[in-house]
Specification:
A 3-stranded mixed beta sheet has the order 2-1-7. 6% of the residues lie in helices and 26% in strands. With 101 residues, it is mainly beta. The chain contains 1 helix and 7 strands; from the N terminus they run ββαβββββ. It has one helix at 38-43; strands at 20-25, 28-33, 50-51, 58-59, 72-75, 78-81, 92-93.
Length: 101
């Protein structure tokens, strides 16, 4: 894997010997490691996961175990919890969730 992005929220300190996984975040090609959750893979690339759909704030996950509603993203499977979904090779992730109604 290349250099760590300067604006990333997470920095890897161990476990870097895993296979590289290529995926897309909002149309931008990036890399993570096999076994990473979507949340971990995204936060090693940038400072936050997504915009809060009910205001202007940024979100980065809250409970980190699939109990809250803070880390929703969109994939080809639909609305997905980033903290409990493993990133896969070729996955396309959209982080902009819009409020309905």
């Amino acid at each position: 894997m290349g250099a760590h992005p300067i604006n990333a929220q997470l920095v890897r300190v161990t476990g870097r010997d895993r296979r590289t996984v290529s995926f897309m975040i909002d149309g931008v090609p990036v890399e993570g490691l096999a076994g990473d959750t979507v949340l971990t893979a995204v936060l090693t690339q940038r400072h936050s996961l997504r915009s809060f759909e009910f205001g202007g704030g940024r979100r980065s996950g809250f409970c980190l175990m699939g109990a809250c509603q803070d880390c929703w993203v969109l994939t080809s499977a639909g609305r997905t919890r980033a903290c409990s979904t493993l990133v896969t090779d070729g996955m396309a992730i959209s982080t902009e969730i819009r409020a309905h109604g």
